[in-house]
Design the sequence.
């Protein structure tokens, strides 16, 4: 299973472009299509969407979710990504609790992980 065929449009600042490119290509399995003139790593996604990793050595990650991938089977995606070395976050807060990395939010299931820069990424599935 791969996240390559999920709809996303995102400009993501990263501090180390080579480290980020390795994570997004190898750990997430996204389709790396090359580097542009400013050194950004480019990824093609289904539906004409793309992900651009911007080399920004002084950038700091947002504390909120930066990007979320809609998936059909969140458990299968978590298993696949964990096999690739992705570490999922677990929460035990009054309004946010995960069980086996998954939080049920109304009619949606969600799970979170971070890229090497600490950007929070999410998988979500309509329940």
Sequence:
């Amino acid at each position: 299973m791969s996240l390559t065929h999920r709809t996303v449009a995102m400009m993501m600042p990263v501090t180390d472009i080579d480290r980020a490119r390795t994570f997004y290509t190898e750990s997430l399995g996204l389709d790396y299509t090359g580097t542009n003139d400013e050194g950004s790593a480019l990824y093609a996604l289904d539906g004409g969407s793309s992900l651009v990793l911007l080399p920004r050595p002084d950038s700091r990650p947002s504390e909120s979710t930066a990007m979320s991938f809609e998936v059909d089977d969140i458990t299968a995606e978590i298993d696949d990504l964990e096999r690739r070395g992705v570490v999922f976050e677990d929460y035990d807060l009054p309004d946010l609790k995960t069980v086996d990395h998954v939080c049920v939010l109304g009619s949606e299931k969600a799970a979170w992980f971070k890229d090497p820069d600490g950007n929070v990424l999410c998988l979500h599935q309509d329940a």
